[in-house]
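Task: fold both queries, return C-alpha cells.
Query 1:
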Amino acid sequence: MDRNVDVDIKRDGLTLHGRISRAAGEKNAVLIIFHGFGGDSGYGENDLYSLLAAKALECGVTAVRFDFSGCGKSGGKFEDMDIFREILDAIEILKYVCALPYAENIYLLGHSMGGVVAGMLAGLYPDVVKKLILLAPAATLKDDAWKGICMGVSYDVQHVPETVLVDGQHQVGGHFFRIARNLPIYEVTAQFGGETLLIHGMPDEIVDYHASVVYHDCIENSRLCLYENLDHGIGGEDQKKVLEEIGNFL
C-alpha cells in the first residue's frame, strides 16, 4: 500500500505543496522535514529528503515535507524568499501537522537553510516541538551577508542590489541579505530545550562545520555528530551512518 499522500495548504494566499508519508498505527510521532536553499522537498526515490522520510517510516514515525513558497511545486516567486517568509511557511506547516488527528509528538528536521528555519521554529515553539534534528545548518548565512557573499557570488554589501543571481539560476532578492545579517539565529534556537541532534560533515565547503559547534554550545540538550566523509548535501561514504544515527534518535 502506498503510504504517500500529496497535500496542499494555504499561507497568506500562497499554496504550499507537500507530501505526507504516513506511518502505520492510530497515533504516531510526526517528523516535519525542511529542505535547503533553492531546493524542494524531494521527488526522487534516492533524494535525501525521500531517504529521510523512508527512515522515519522505518521507525514508525510519519514524515511530512513541504516545498517552501517560491520553491518546487509551491506557489510564489523565489526572489521574494527570505528567512522570515520561510519561518511563516514553517509556522503554517506546524499548525497543519498539529491538527492531524494521528499526530502525537512533533519532531523537526532541517537541512542547510532549512536547518536555520527548523532551529528558529523550535525556539519559537518549544512547548510544541519535542525533538530537533539539524543537518549542516546554514547559520553562516548571517556572516556571509555581512561579507557580501552568497554561494560563492559576491555583491556590494554597502549598496545591496535589488537582486543577486546565485548558482546561475536563482535570483535572490536584496532584502534576503539585509534580513539575514540581522537574524538572531542562535539566540532564538537556544530557547529550545528539547533533545537536539546536530549532524555536520567536516569537509563541508558550503557551511563550515563550526556552525554546528556553535549550535551545540548554545543548545543545552544537544548532541553533535561530525563526519569525515560527508558533504553539504549529506552525501558521501558516511550517509548510511547518518541515516542510522537519525533512526536511533527518532
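Query 1 returned. Query 2:
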Amino acid sequence: MIEISSLLVAFSIGILGGAHCLGMCGGIIGALTVAIASSNYRQRFLMVLFYNIGRILSYCFIAWIFYLFITQLTHYFALHIMRTVAGCLLIAMGLYLANWWRGLIYLEKVGSYLWRYIQPLGQSLLPVKTPIHALMLGMIWGWLPCGLIYSALVYSATAQNSFHAVVTMLAFALGTLPTVMASGLLAERLMVLIKQTGVRQLFAVLIIGFGVWTLWHSGHSINGI
C-alpha cells in the first residue's frame, strides 16, 4: 500500500518547486503559444496541456526505469542506500527551496551531459504546430537537467515496487502542474504566494524535517537486521 505521507511530500516538492519550474520551462511555454493568436484561448490551453501531459509521462517513465535499475542491485542494501541518498537530497532540496544553499545545481550540471544529445530532438519540433507535437516536446523536455526532478526521482526509488515509484513521481509531477499550467491573474497570484519568503521557508523546513526522518529511518532499519 502506498504511504499517503510519501505522496504528500512528493506533491509538496512539486508545488514548492513551481517557481523553479517556471524558470526552467517558461521559455518553452512561450514557444508553444508564440504563433497562436492571443484571443485563441482554446488552442493555447491545448498546447500547454499536451506539453504538460508529455512532461509528466516522461517523469513517470524515468522513475520506472530508474527503479528497475536500482532493483538490479542487492535488494536490501539498495533500498538502504537509496533511503540515505533520498534523505540527503531532501535536506539539500529544502535548503535549495529556501535559498539557504543551492548545491543541487551541481546535479543539474551532471545531467547536462545527457541533455546535449536530447535537446536537438526538441528543437526539431519548433515551432510547435499541433497538440501532438506539444506532447512530443513535453516528453523530450521531461529529461531537462533539474535538481528538483533528480531529488524527487531518488525519493521515488525508495518505494516498495515500480508501480509505487511511478505513482510517487506522478504526485511530484502533479504538484508542478498548477504553476506551469496557470496563466493570467491566477499565475500572478500563485507566484506571489510561492515567492513569499515565509511560505517557502516553512515548507522547506518541513521537507528538511522529512529528510532527517528518512535518514533516521534508514539507519534504524540497518541496525535492526
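Both queries returned. Flag for query 2: Residues 41-70 form the longest helix (30 residues).
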